[in-house]
Amino acid sequence: MPGRNEGADRLCPVCSAPLGLRDSGSDPDHGTDHGPDALVDALQASESRFRAAFADAGIGMALIGSDDRIIEANPAFAAMIGHEAPNLVRTHIHEIIDPEDTPRRLYLELVRGERDRLRVEKQLKHREGRVVWSNVTISLIRDGAGQPMYTLAMVEDVTEQRLLGDQLAYQAMHDPLTRLPNRTLFFERLNAEFGPGAEPSSSGLPRSLDRGPDGGDDFAEPRPRTGAAEAADPTGDGEPADPGRRVGLCYLDLDGFAAINETLGHHAGDELLVAVAARLEHGFARGDGQGNGPGGGRLVARLGGDEFAVLVCDSAGSEQLTALAADLIKLLAEPFHVAGQQLAVTASVGVVERRIVETTPTDLLKDADATLYWSKADGRARWTLYDPDRGAHQLTRQRLATALRPALERGEFTVEYQPLVGLADGTVHGAEALVRWRHPRYGTLSPDRFIPLAEESGAIVPLGKWVLEESCRQAKRWLLEFPEAEAFVSVNLAARQIWDSDVVADVAQALKLTGLPARLLQLEITESAVLGPGGRPVQALQALADMGIRIAIDDFGTGYSNLAYLSRLPVHVLKLDGSFIEGFRDPAPGGRPDSRFRRTDADEQIVGAMVQLAHALGLTVTAEGIENASQAERLRLTGCDTAQGWYFARPGEAERIAAILREGRVRSA
Ligand code: C2E
Ligand code: MG
Ligand code: MG
Questions:
Q1: Residue 141's closest CA among 77, 214, 68, 66?
Q2: 3-state class of 92 per DSSP?
Q3: Which atom number of ligand 1 is nearest to the Cα of residue 446?
Q4: pLDDT digit string (tens) for 345-404?
Q5: Is there an atom of ligand 1 within 6 Å of 622 CB?
Q6: What's the whole-number average pLDDT of the chain?
Q7: Quick one: pLDDT at residue 31?
Q8: Could you give the angle at the alpha carbon of 13 between the alpha carbons of 8 and 18, nearest 5°?
């Protein structure tokens, strides 16, 4: 600072303007004349007050010149860092405080007069080498013309609070038994991996407990990012993480830990957990756990009970993770010495590894949990890598079940139709309505994926009602377009629709609503849905039949196949299950008997007998699952009435049925 010297720490006691060396009220730099006597008295009184306040203050104080050297420090400040006050004069502040980029920049702004105050939390260097945490408030002192002269630092020792805070934070973030990072810290680190929104604190502590060394309320800018946060958001500009970055997780659970607890006592159980934790930490917590290590940091955490996790930041691929899982298992296979005995324990591990942009912390953990469960289910003492197909299957089971009803409201279901073809002339008699779920995420789902779920949850009742109405509406359109064809629609009814809802009223309403004559509606019911104690289903079937609706028994031959019983019910059609037709192949070459074809013959004879019996009881027969011409031809020879299968047409849009009706025949049978 130009013109500053050793005497410049003196201020005008009247107006507080700096006086410079000249001990005079008429100092031209000062500019204001207070009158000589008043000035001298005031000056002396004020100076001694200031000196006393400075010297006796409990808080550390130091005047610092623009050359960053201490002009004067008080004893409290000197004691804080293990010095005598006079020895600090002309000490460069960087001998006491490490220069750091951001605070340094802000300090220079202060010295240049661009700001008046600065508050920072700083680590001071104690003479004995230890760190002193301090809250520092630095004020700029200006001269009479407003030019910066020097700075006054007030320094408060907060080491104790800080250590206490650290201790509390440590306790909040670590498992007291094993001293491993706990669930909270694990999630904090995991979230940090996933990008800017979830910036971790550099110490791994929550931000509230982690006011860094340069954290102060004058800091307009965020603290410099380090470690994982930097990796997740390398530019620090809030852009999402590098799309190539990957993350991996080994989720580990000891096998049979509960039994150890029960037989040897909780004490032994705890001892074992501590030993396991120590092994895991020694073996696998490579890197610094903050994502700064080579090849990505790792964090070994105890997630609760006997569950541990190894989080791999910046993983190299699933091979790295499965190798790690194998190592984990191997490491734990060595016996443990616990409670005076040797204990052999095994562990099951679920491994998930994927690109960060493709997942979320919640999904990662959920999938790791599912995978761990597969390891257990597949026999324990093993690792399993997450398999999306297996996962999707499980996931969809629960998700689909809850999504069914809303999906129905959103109109995600459609109906496909598969022709029912007369075997005698190849004409289309009608079509079976087969529901599909156009799931926005999983694509088109076949009924086998969701009908059982809908039956379990009861969602089949509204879904079935919708299919019924939709199918009747469609059949009515065919009727209007092809009145001669009299094509009927065959709709599947679930058992629960018959038991749990007023199916008769629903069907009547559907017919009324769509204007479809009852004779063009066929309802397919499985044997198991109507068998059992009489009563409700039989009454319902009777009421439906009385309305003029045809009743078909679906998948006949897979259940009780009690034709005699069925014949007493109001049933009109038997749909032979596709499994009967599977055995229908070409006859043995040259007509020679061949053992390979005995099954074929048997199937044919059974089907032939069933067709005859059904006809004798006044039922017509439809065969399902016809996939080739030979099956169709042989079926025709048995006297079977209608057939359905890929050979004629796969299930498809309603328009395909219309096209076939337009042509008259699907193909010659
Ligand atoms: P289903 O009633 O026995 O229907 C026949 C199934 O066989 C259909 O499967 C059809 O696509 C399939 N299929 C047709 N031709 C062939 C063939 O040549 N070879 C083979 N291997 N399969 C063939 P999809 O559409 O997957 O339906 C499966 C089952 O879902 C149906 O069996 C039915 O029980 C049920 N379902 C379908 N839609 C509904 C519905 O709206 N309500 C109820 N309650 N159940 C339905
Ligand atoms: Mg069916
Ligand atoms: Mg069937």
A1: 66
A2: strand
A3: 26
A4: 999 999 999 999 989 999 999 999 989 988 988 889 999 999 887 877 776 677 888 899
A5: no
A6: 82
A7: 52
A8: 25
Does 651 contact ligand 1 (Cβ within 6 A)?
Answer: yes
Q: What is the C-alpha to C-alpha distance for residues 475 and 430, in angstroms, rounded to an integer? A: 9
As a whole number of angstroms, the longest Cα–Cα distance in the chain is 142
Q: Tell me phi and psi for residue 54, to 5 degrees.
A: -65, -45
Task: Count Cα neighbours of 414 within 13 Å in the Cβ-side half-sphere.
Answer: 12
C-alpha angle 158-161-163 in degrees, rounded to nearest 5: 105
- Write a three-state SS string for 342-357: EECCCEEEEEEEEEHH
Cα dihedral: 525, 526, 531, 533 (round 10): -60
406 CA from centroid of ligand 2 (Å):
25
**Ligand 1: does its nearest atom lie under 6 Å from the Cβ of 492?**
yes
The answer, yes or no, to whether any atom of ligand 1 lies below 6 A from the CB of 447, is yes
Q: Residue 434 C-alpha to ligand 3 middle, in angstroms? A: 10
Ligand 1 contact, 555 CB (< 6 A): yes
Question: In terms of Cα–Cα distance, which of 428, 339, 477 is closest to 644?
Answer: 428
Atom 8 (ligand 1) nearest CA: 434
Q: Does the pLDDT of residue 138 top 50, yes or no?
A: yes
Number of residues assigned to the chain:
669
pTM value is 0.52
pLDDT of residue 168: 87
- Separation in Å, CA 108 to CA 67, 534, 616: 11, 94, 106
CA distance 545 to 551: 7
Is residue 418 in contact with ligand 1, taking CB distance under 6 Å?
yes
Ligand 1 atom closest to Cα of residue 644:
15
Residue with tokens 């960060």: 356
Pocket test for ligand 1, best of 624, 627, 653 (most atoms within 8 A of CB): 624
Residue 315 pLDDT greater than 70, yes or no:
yes
User: Which DSSP state fits 11?
Assistant: B
Which residues make up the environment of ion ligand 2, defined by Cβ < 5 Å?
492, 524, 554
Q: Where are the strands (E) in 183-335, listed by range? A: 246-254, 298-304, 307-313
Q: What is the mean pLDDT of residues 230-243?
A: 48
Tell me how far CA of residue 248 lies from CA of 204, 286, 302, 350, in angstroms. 19, 14, 16, 11
3-class secondary structure, 53? helix
State pLDDT tens for residues 247-297. Answer: 999 999 999 898 888 888 999 999 999 999 999 998 887 644 443 433 458
Contact call for residues 385 and 318 (beta carbons, < 8 A): yes
Mutate to test the pocket of ligand 1, among 434, 471, 575 (most ligand atoms within 8 A of CB): 434
Closest C-alpha residue for ligand 1 atom 22: 625
* Ligand 2 centroid – CA 66 distance (Å): 91
